[in-house]
Amino acid sequence: MSAGIARWLSRVSVIACFCIGWWGTAPLCAEQVFYSGFEEQVDSLWTPFVTPNGTIGEQDRPKRIRFDTTGNEQPSWCLRFQVGHRIAGKMPDSRQGGGIYRTFSVTRGRYEISVDVASAYASPKHRRNMDGGVFELLVDGKILDQVVIGPIETGTVKRRTLHSTLNLDAGTHELRIRITRRFANKSAPWQYVDNVRVSSYSPVLRYDQLRKHRDTGNDPAKLDQAFNLTRRNKQASFGGRS
């Protein structure tokens, strides 16, 4: 095959991606492994857990409530936590709390995981809490993504999304969402979890996204990196998710 024909075919593939992805950035051929929006009672497949000196709230179970976790002004069912140290001062240099976990089964391949999270603080006495929580996304014990809320003013909500793409072997895997703080959970901020998604991953980039990363060529790893970078930059530009 001549170099000219190869270049022409490469351009055609880019235009095809543009035509497919123009109406949205979501992969059209992705297959959903599971989705938890907590519209029903807390899924029995999810199990609460706590760290050695941690708590996640009353009776160490998350509470299912309606809350605007994503910032779209449409409250939906989600899980609410209030994490922190169970006994103040017992492990002062550590982060404590807990979260939820479950297992899921897949065939060998590349997958995408996302979780919407938020932290909210409301206090009649204090203007600020110094630790809104750290959210972590883990698969098989490995931390894939982390959101650090940091200090949070009373009367405010900070919203984020945990996200990762990864290769998985065929079989059963554990997905864990861990939330921790450095302080006791008394009068602490609330933490929220919603829209847990696991799906097969097939990157479909818009044409304008591809133009920003012309050096990706046909390397799938570079395409994945470009897609994730563009997605994170786009999320960071949303004022409602800060």
Description:
By secondary structure, this protein is α+β, with helices and mostly antiparallel strands. The protein has one domain: Jelly Rolls. The chain is built from three helices and 15 strands. The protein has helices at 3-21, 207-211, 220-236; strands at 32-36, 47-50, 54-55, 63-67, 76-81, 84-85, 96-106, 109-121, 128-129, 134-139, 142-148, 152-153, 156-168, 171-181, 190-200. Strand 10 (134-139) and strand 11 form a beta hairpin. The radius of gyration is 20 Å and the shape is globular. The termini are far apart.
What labels describe this entry?
six-stranded antiparallel beta sheet; disordered C terminus; alpha+beta; Jelly Rolls; about 240 residues
Terminal Cα separation, in Å?
A: 50 Å
Return the CATH topology. Jelly Rolls
Please tell me how large the radius of gyration is: 20 Å
Total helical segments: 3
**How confident overall, as mean pLDDT?**
81
- Largest beta-sheet characterization: 6 strands, antiparallel
Question: What is the architecture at the second tier of CATH?
Answer: Sandwich
For CATH, the homologous superfamily is named as Galactose-binding domain-like
Strand content: 35-45%
- Unreliable stretches (pLDDT < 50, length at least 5) are 12-28, 205-214, 233-242
Query: From the helix content, strand content and strand pairing, which structural class follows?
Result: alpha+beta
Principal-axes geometry comes out as: globular
**N-to-C series of helices and strands:** HEEEEEEEEEEEEEEEHH
Kindly provide the name of the CATH class. Answer: Mainly Beta
